[in-house]
Design a protein that fits this description.
Structural class: alpha/beta
Radius of gyration: 23 Å
Oligomer: single chain
Low-confidence stretches: none
Helix content: 25-40%
Number of domains: 3
Number of helices: 17
CATH topology of the largest domain: TIM Barrel
Distance between the termini: 48 Å
CATH superfamily of the largest domain: Phosphoenolpyruvate-binding domains
């Protein structure tokens, strides 16, 4: 049974402290009603549900709690289902964790056994035929490094080159080794069907390698009569090489730095991250920077200086959103982690607005390609914001494209995006500086409707300047063709 429809939240107005969006992974540390509410109040814009863990029933309960809490708080919070993909993982251990020491000899096995310090089960049955003596195997995002010594049937004898704590179900990476696994698994399709039945239409797709992987998911949803908003997780070298084709068919990108830092030489991750951010910005689609952003706050109440700098650099480069994983899913300080992320974002945004750091570079890159009419309108909105004391940019939108294009310029002004399309409103929770509102009833025309809401919210002040974009209201995407500058009277 599908989750209940959300209430029309366009009856209230709350201005956040930061324009950078925050994606939070929910898990054991953040599944209660009170913690979810606290995460929202501190700045969570999108809840990520990691379908590599948990049951459908557990996720169903989370979805309903998120919807109900967001409705009570009168805010738009997106829900993103993160599909597990063909992740190669270790199995389970009797005490959940084992400690591997440098120099230890261990056996990897494809047999279905409970793991120990000496025997580590792997869920990839073809592994013994794919690996050879001397090959490297990385566990737990590359923190543990093994070297293959010999292969015996279903067992692989390895030496521990870099040790560490290994817990159940952690990931396995085999850089340089050809893995013949379909990026879209039957388990993924089952998760998509479940999500759609529960009213969730936003999915992040793991371990994609080509544009066809995105198209496969979109076609599957369309065959079920549903539209979806798809985030391509970029974590494999093949995906990085195919990014120009992938970016044409996806709705958003995620820089999944955990696996990327093992699949690619780790020293390449910083410049790949910067290149992906500018490509997404130029295309006008949201991009999420993820993994190890506040990793130390899993245990500690304060982050490291390096983590704060990492987040700041991602924001200054133009990322739309930053994501917390273990920090909110299983850490000791989920709510302080979100509060810290929000405060870092707020400080960066103030400094960028004062210094105009990177703004000209972003604008030059966006304007370096051929532009459509609605993209030209977005550019002129940015000009108006830079030259006039604009209080708000108001973008009625069917597809969300105009709001995202304006957002790409990283304006100092908030963008109020109104849509009759519920999925559009929810998907705009990923875009920098956009406050999305789902409006079920359009009164007269958009201009009358949004000005009426501004009066209701007590943000209609005589003398304020607002910029309004408009189109023919045919319900077709990309038809914005008018920019109107209004001085409120």
């Amino acid at each position: 049974m599908a989750a209940e429809k959300k209430k029309d939240i366009s009856t209230c107005f709350k201005l956040p402290n930061n324009k950078t969006k925050i994606v939070c992974t929910l898990g054991p540390a953040s599944s209660s009603d009170c913690v979810i509410k606290a995460l929202m109040l501190k700045g969570m814009n999108v809840a990520r549900l990691n379908f590599s863990h948990g049951t459908f029933e557990e996720h169903r309960n989370l979805i309903r709690t998120i919807r109900e809490t967001a409705s009570k708080l009168c805010i738009e919070v997106g829900i993103m289902i993160d599909l597990p993909g063909p992740k190669i993982r270790v199995g389970t251990f009797e005490d959940n964790t084992v400690h591997l020491l440098k120099g230890d000899e261990v056996f990897l096995t494809t047999n279905d056994v409970v793991g120990s310090k000496k025997t580590i089960p792997i869920n990839y049955k073809k592994l013994p035929t794919k690996i050879s003596s001397g090959d490297s195997i990385y566990l737990n995002d590359g923190f543990i490094h093994l070297q293959c010594l010999e292969v015996y049937g279903e067992n692989i004898k390895c030496k521990v080159l870099t040790g560490g704590i290994l817990s159940s179900n952690k990931g396995v990476n085999l850089p340089g080794i050809e893995i013949d696994l379909d990026p879209i698994t039957e388990k993924d399709l089952e998760a998509i069907r479940f999500g759609l039945n529960e009213g969730v239409n936003i999915f992040s797709i793991s371990f994609i390698e080509k544009a066809a992987d995105i198209i496969k998911v979109r076609d599957f949803a369309h065959n079920l009569g549903k539209n979806v908003f798809l985030i391509a997780k970029i974590e494999r070298e093949k995906a990085v090489k195919s990014i120009d084709k992938i970016i044409k068919v996806t709705d958003g990108l995620m820089i999944a730095r955990g696996d990327m830092g093992v699949e690619l030489p780790i020293q390449k991750v910083p410049h790949v991250q910067k290149e992906l951010i500018i490509k997404a910005t130029t295309k006008g689609i949201p991009i999420i920077t993820a993994t190890h952003m506040l990793e130390s706050m899993i245990e500690n109440i304060r982050p490291t200086r390096a983590e704060v700098t990492d987040i700041a650099n991602a924001i200054l480069d133009g990322t739309d959103a930053v994501m917390l994983s273990g920090e909110t899913a299983a850490g000791k300080h989920p709510v302080p982690s979100v509060a810290m992320m929000a405060s870092i974002a707020h400080e960066c945004e103030i400094w960028r607005e004062k210094s105009q750091w990177g703004i000209q570079r972003i604008e030059n890159k966006i304007c370096s390609v051929s532009m459509t009419v609605d993209e030209v309108i977005s550019h002129h909105v940015n000009d108006a914001v830079q030259r006039l004391p604009v209080k708000y940019v108001i973008t009625p939108t069917f597809s969300g494209k105009t709001a995202r294009k304006v957002s790409s310029f990283k304006p100092r002004t908030w963008i109020l995006a109104f849509s009759r399309n519920e999925l559009t409103a929810e998907s705009l929770t990923f875009s920098y500086g956009v406050l999305p509102y789902h409006v079920s009833n359009l009164e007269n025309d958009w201009e009358d409707t949004v000005l009426k809401y501004m009066k209701k919210w007590n943000i209609y002040n005589s003398g304020d300047v607002v910029v309004l974009t408009k189109g023919p209201s045919t319900g077709k995407p990309g038809e914005t063709n008018l920019l109107k500058i209004i001085t409120l009277t």
